[in-house]
Automatic annotation (TrEMBL):
Naturally occurring in which organism (per UniProt): Paenibacillus radicis (ex Gao et al. 2016)
Keywords of this entry: ATP-binding, Cell membrane, Membrane, Nucleotide-binding, Transmembrane, Transmembrane helix, Transport
Pfam families membership: ABC_membrane (PF00664), ABC_tran (PF00005)
UniProt-listed SUPFAM superfamilies: ABC transporter transmembrane region (SSF90123), P-loop containing nucleoside triphosphate hydrolases (SSF52540)
Principal subcellular localisation of the protein: membrane
Cellular component per GO, a single term: plasma membrane
Domain (ABC transmembrane type-1): residue spans on this chain: 38-320
Protein name, UniProt field: ABC transporter ATP-binding protein
Highest taxon of source: Bacteria
Family assignment from sequence similarity: Belongs to the ABC transporter superfamily.
Membrane topology: Multi-pass membrane protein
Length: 610
């Protein structure tokens, strides 16, 4: 079941996505790099102080150098301005560099934290959320924060420092003129507060629309064969265009807000400037101020307004980051439903005795799948599950691997409840060969060794041979180093299956879960797979989800399921004799075969070595 990003938000408690919380978390990520931060701060202070020098030199030139005809002071003033400009450049360069390196490190940490957290979440979480949306959060949303840290954070600190220093100095020079300028600030704060909320909302829409685009890409590019086979390219192009347009509209909405907000701040700045000019001109005419002071004061007003103007632009980045941050904390705030207890027992090597006791289970918001379900698997035996599609067979395998926890009842292995044991110690003893074959982009060797990364080359080849895969692997141009493509697209169905068997063999698990493929293979590869499977199953406890009854005649115990309940149970022969559901299913699959024939098959011939 998929849900869009806004659905994900409705489900969760409202996250504390405030700007302060965002800064606190980002500060936590950079706190260990305090020497670099102090270096950046020193540079910032130096920049702010140096900003004063040029207006001071201007005032000195107008008030003293020009009236006094001090020609010999001019070269020194020129050198002073040049030196200040060079130092300003250097300190700006150092502060940008140090803050960028601190910021990039924080982003790296955050992205890794997010990915680590995603890896901890349970399978149910991934059922409910779209891969494209999650990808967009880890890439696009984290990138948004990158902007905040590398440029936004620096400019806020610089601007704040400059603002306080300049305002303090101006108050000292002429408090009345300064108060005139500062009178416009409450209006700026009100305007900023008004727009910041709207901007955040608008940026959230932008980020969500990006995630819609990303989800669509993920869905369709991974299903390109489906699209081609139904000739639905044009349909998908139209759907993509709709999502792209929604993204464009969301972006335009954000731009519109910014386009209104910035001119309002500029207007307030001009009002402040005009007030200083008019009042200052009067004072100068009354000779209460020197011409140099008023010129220098106008420069200070600019210095004071620069950070305000810059801040109004940074606001954009801050709100964009805050919207992205909200989407990131939504995931970080998500708790895994399947969790390992702190005092979890590390499971010793198991015999493989499994019990399902009164287990009831439903998927998230779904109808009950298992109701008061009981099942027993004996160590070293083969237990098979049969039943109509949707009866709950794969669900039983999911509960055994603890991909999900049941709402009622318990599942135990060798008497240990699964909820009490370490997840790694449980899953490391299980091998899953599923009808949906999970392969990663990479080489054949990497895919086989995924179950045991420390495996020796000889073991990998032995697994390949035991899985009847060695011959086809050696026929490939690069043998075990051949690339198999995304999800193994370069391999046939049967080859993929044999690779997954080789991977399970290399793991050498105590317990095997075989969710049998329904796909019909040609008889040669079917025999190759059956042989490989027989080797995999030999000597282990096995749970087989059978679609073809021919493969489970040799099972020690067969459970027949219907709508999440066991309706029959026993050996193949006993179940055939019952003349119940199993027999019905059997006759459906083998319509020509009579009972005697069926029995003769089950009692010997064709039974794989176990
Ligand atoms: N991840 C999931 N989220 C929600 N519902 C699910 C999920 N997986 C399965 N279901 C539902 O649970 C029920 C049992 O599914 P399950 O896959 O266990 O059946 P099955 O017996 O293995 O079927 P089949 O033989 O077709 O593979 C079905 O109704 C299915 O729609």
């Amino acid at each position: 079941m998929n849900m869009n990003p806004s659905m994900m938000q409705q489900q969760r408690p409202k996250s504390k996505g405030s700007i302060w919380a965002m800064y606190k978390r980002m500060f936590f990520h950079v706190s260990s790099r305090w020497p670099l931060m102090i270096a950046a701060l020193v540079c910032i202070i130096a920049v702010s102080l140096l900003e004063f020098v040029i207006p001071q030199l201007t005032q000195y030139t107008i008030d003293h150098v020009i009236p006094g005809h001090k020609y010999d002071a001019l070269p020194m003033i020129g050198i002073g301005i040049l030196a200040t400009a060079v130092l300003l450049g250097l300190f700006n360069y150092w502060s940008s560099l140090t803050m960028a390196s601190v910021g990039q490190r924080a982003i790296l940490d955050l992205r890794n934290e997010l990915y680590r957290h995603l890896q901890k979440l349970d399978v149910g979480f991934f059922d409910r959320n779209r891969t494209g949306d999650l990808m967009s959060r880890v890439t696009n949303d984290v990138n948004m924060l990158q902007q905040l840290i590398s440029s936004g954070m620096l400019s806020i600190v610089t601007d704040l420092f400059t603002f306080v220093a300049v305002a303090g100095y101006m108050l000292w020079v002429d408090w009345r003129l300064t108060l005139l300028v500062l009178a416009t600030f409450p209006f700026m704060i009100m305007t900023t507060r008004f727009f910041s909320k709207k901007m955040r909302f608008s940026f959230k829409r932008v980020q969500e629309s990006v995630s819609e685009v990303s989800s669509h890409l993920q869905d369709t590019l991974t299903s390109i064969r489906l699209i081609k086979s139904f000739s639905s390219e044009d349909y998908e192009v139209r759907r993509f265009a709709d999502r792209s347009e929604a993204n464009m509209n969301a972006n335009l909405g954000a731009v519109k807000l910014r386009a209104v907000y910035e001119p309002i701040i500029d207007l307030l700045n001009f009002i402040g400037l005009a007030a200083v000019l008019l009042f200052g001109a009067r004072q100068t005419m009354h000779e209460a101020l020197t011409l140099g002071t008023i010129v220098a004061f106008m420069a200070y007003v600019r210095l004071l307004q620069n950070p305000v103007k810059r801040f109004s632009r940074t606001m954009n980045t801050i709100q964009q980051s805050a919207a992205a941050y909200e989407r990131i904390v939504e995931i970080l705030g998500e708790e895994p439903a399947v969790r390992e207890k702190e005092d979890a027992v590390q499971l010793p090597v198991v015999r493989g005795e499994v019990q399902f006791r009164n287990v009831s289970f439903a998927y998230h918001n779904g109808a009950p799948v298992l109701k008061q379900f009981n099942l027993e698997m004996r160590a070293g035996e083969m237990t098979a599950l049969v039943g109509s599609s949707g009866a709950g067979k794969s669900t039983i395998a999911h509960l055994l691997t603890r991909f999900y926890d049941p709402q009622e009842g318990e599942v135990t292995i060798d008497g240990y409840p699964l909820t009490e044991v370490g997840l790694k110690s449980l899953r490391s003893q299980m091998g899953i060969v599923s009808q949906e074959i999970w392969l990663l982009n990479g080489t054949i060797r990497e895919n086989i060794a995924y179950s045991n990364p420390d495996a020796e080359e000889a073991d990998i080849i032995a697994a390949g041979k035991a899985a009847n895969a060695h011959a086809f692997i050696m026929d490939l141009p690069d043998g075990y180093d051949s690339q198999i493509g995304e999800r193994g697209v370069k391999l046939s169905g049967g080859q993929k299956q044999r690779l997954s068997i080789a991977r399970a063999l290399l793991k050498n698990p105590r317990l095997i879960i075989l969710d049998e493929a329904t796909s019909s293979l040609d008889s040669e590869s079917e025999r190759a797979i059956q042989d490989a499977l027989a080797r995999l199953l030999a000597g282990r406890t096995c749970l087989i989800i059978a679609h073809r009854l021919s493969t489970i005649r040799q099972a020690d115990r067969i459970y027949v399921l219907d709508k999440g309940r066991v309706i029959e149970e026993g050996s193949h022969e006993a179940l055939l004799e019952k003349q119940g559901r199993y027999r019905q299913l059997y006759e459906l699959q083998f319509p020509q075969r009579d009972e005697t024939d069926a029995k003769s098959v089950t009692t010997g011939q064709g039974k794989p070595a176990r």
